[in-house]
Design goal:
Elements: E1 2-6, H1 13-24, E2 27-30, H2 31-41, H3 44-55, H4 61-75, E3 79-82, H5 88-101, E4 107-112, H6 115-123, E5 125-127, E6 134-136, H7 163-177, H8 179-186, E7 190-194, H9 199-218
Parallel strand pairs: 1-3, 1-4, 2-3, 4-7
Antiparallel strand pairs: 5-6
Helix pairs in contact: 1-9, 2-3, 4-5
The chain binds BIS(adenosine)-5'-pentaphosphate.
BIS(adenosine)-5'-pentaphosphate is lined by residues 7, 9-15, 31-32, 35, 52-53, 56-59, 64, 83-84, 86, 90, 121-122, 125, 134-136, 139-140, 160, 169, 197-199, 202.
């Protein structure tokens, strides 16, 4: 199964991708995590991407498409993607890359959350920079404040979760990523999910929607 997640910053794409990866045993491809790892390691890609990520803007299509092509060489059979595609050019490139491999996309899941909730979620987010696991100080805190339950390592707040950068990321989403909703609707691949409520409730809705889509394809 090949799935992409759509939705604004803070919609829960990373959280749900990680849960779905475990449930469906799919490979996870998260462009934000990949870019942050490159930034932390000071790679050429990281140095090129850094100013864009810090400003809350999109990294140029050519850089992220090349990064995804490498991932698909290893994992085109089954994956769940978080953060890609983010522009129509990226979506078209993904379709072309998957067509060349004979492994078309099954579904694009759109997580729908109102803006005030997005901002509240991002301002309380804490992340394990090594694994990408996220917590929320208000709704899903770690057992010990500031420490990851999994590996005992310190949690950090993302630089781009500062209020002014969040505002920029939401604007960029509206202008450059929201058009993908129509792109996937026209392709008959869009599944809309109400992403308000507990993390577990949202995971159950996603699993049910995927199950229904798979069932209707089979029948
Ligand atoms: P990226 O890391 O992809 O950030 P994003 O899309 O802005 O998404 P977020 O990670 O902020 O939110 P999320 O939806 O994953 O929410 P999460 O699950 O963490 O990208 C960062 C930057 O990299 C971009 O700005 C850009 O510069 C660059 N980039 C990345 N991909 C690119 C691409 N394809 N092209 C160009 N540039 C690219 O949840 C948020 C919080 O809410 C957490 O605290 C979580 O615990 C909590 N939460 C989640 N679900 C719930 C729930 N149901 N109830 C209560 N709390 C919840």
């Amino acid at each position: 199964m090949r799935i992409v997640f759509l939705g604004p910053p803070g919609a829960g794409k990373g959280t749900q991708t990680r849960l779905l990866r475990a449930r469906l045993r799919l490979h996870q491809i998260a462009t934000g995590d990949m870019l942050r790892a490159n930034l932390a390691n000071g790679t050429k890609l990281g140095r090129e991407a850094q100013p864009y990520v810090e400003r809350g803007e999109l990294v140029p299509d050519s850089l992220v498409i090349a990064m995804i092509e490498g991932e698909l060489d290893r994992n085109a059979a089954g994956f769940v993607m978080d953060g890609f595609p983010r522009t129509v050019a990226q979506a078209e490139a993904l379709d072309a890359m998957l067509a060349r491999r004979g492994t078309p996309l099954d579904a694009a899941l759109l997580l729908k959350v109102e803006r005030a909730v997005l901002i509240a979620r991002l301002s309380a987010r804490w992340t394990n920079p090594r694994t990408g696991r996220t917590y929320n100080a208000l709704t899903s805190p770690p057992k010990v404040a500031g420490i990851c339950d999994d590996d005992g390592k310190p949690l950090v707040q993302r630089e781009d979760d500062r209020a002014e950068t969040v505002a920029k990321r939401l604007q960029v989403y509206d202008e450059q990523t929201r058009p993908l909703v129509d792109y996937y609707r026209k392709a008959g691949k869009l599944i809309e999910i109400d992403a308000l409520g507990s993390i577990e409730a949202v995971t159950d809705r996603i699993a049910a929607a995927i199950g229904a889509a798979t069932h209707s394809e089979a029948s």
